[in-house]
């Protein structure tokens, strides 16, 4: 990795026009509007730019001292602003130039607000590396971020012992969208949160938790300033907030439509030695692989999120992706046509009589959310294996385009399994899976079985997924 070094912003402001391109000027202009007295901010940059072969996609991260707002009880803090996720140059060196009418590059830049500690005279530079890490994910996956998104980081953001180990994203409260000759740029602010707050955002939605954080001064306040020394969650500060989350889930359902997970499924309808066995993890040395069209449909399903005013729809396997300037993020669902799935002609869709689902503990704890927050609201939820092509999609009777039906509730398309659950069965399962919602450590393995439905679920330790023969 290239060395990160702080540099003065003067070079950028005083450089030749050829070194100070239009897209960069537009972002700088918005920074100058907000900080007219800080024309020469401290910056962090990589020695070798991304477009010259360097590993860090952000050309610059400017760091400003923000005095806060006494009237709104906003504390003094450091304000970090990235430059590089949008198209700074317009010459295809990093982003494909698509004109002024759409998004510039990925359509956004990242910002971050960090509480200024007493005695600090210069901003810490660790947030710059955090922003570079997020930018690398965007460039490599081509999944963009949206306000309300949550990011599971599983580590203190500053590599300390802090409880702030995950992130939510929201619109920056002060930075305004800018129009450039290369498209529009929005500013998405990173907000550091505790594990319990991330879990609440997963179970309900990010915007709801962000609103709760805004109402708690020490957890961010109106401008959502991150305090890495915060030792309590908003639910410990105000226990009544947990009730608001529970009521929100009951009323709105969950925005989370899928996760990457440790999971497998077995077809119990036929013996394992059957050569045509289509279990997701095969006995043979080479596991079956998803077809390109299956993969694309699962990507679309994971890309989809909450549909409040329309039916939940799984995109057709044989359908073509709509043309977008940039792929949407995995969890933001926009309604598409409700055309029935057209199975790929080379992969037969099979109806199964009996199935066995296996999850690790982290994935298993999301089963109540899947059922209560998604299926009871007429939606779908997908587990996509991180160890291979396995995918398990739970669908409700309100989901159109599924190849699982009430008559044949278990159906497989290669290693992709769909399970259709009626509302009555979902309520029954929730009662029996209630212990998975407990915050206490669960002893593994855990077995759940519904013989009359020919369904079995196991929650296993992570080590069970290290072997190719689960």
Structure in a nutshell:
Helix content is 22%, strand content 24%.
Spell out the key features of this protein.
single chain; 470 residues; alpha+beta; 9-stranded mixed beta sheet; 6-stranded mixed beta sheet; 11 helices; 19 strands; 22% helix; 24% strand; globular; disordered N terminus
Taking the alpha carbons of the first and last residues, their distance comes to 37 Å
Total beta strand runs: 19
* Nearest-integer average pLDDT: 84
Net shape: globular
Please explain how this structure is put together.
It is a single chain. The chain is α+β, with helices and mostly antiparallel strands and 470 residues long. It is built from eleven helices and 19 strands. α4 crosses α5. The longest helix is centred in the N-terminal third of the chain and has 16 residues. The N terminus is likely disordered.
Topology of this structure?
Elements: E1 4-8, H1 10-14, H2 22-34, E2 42-46, E3 60-66, E4 77-83, E5 103-115, H3 126-141, E6 150-152, E7 166-171, E8 178-180, E9 183-193, H4 195-203, H5 206-214, H6 234-237, H7 240-252, E10 258-261, E11 263-267, H8 292-303, E12 349-351, E13 355-360, H9 361-364, H10 367-374, E14 380-385, E15 391-396, E16 410-413, E17 416-421, H11 423-432, E18 446-450, E19 455-460
Parallel strand pairs: 5-9, 10-14, 13-19, 15-17
Antiparallel strand pairs: 1-2, 2-3, 3-4, 4-5, 6-7, 7-9, 8-9, 11-13, 12-16, 14-15, 16-17, 18-19
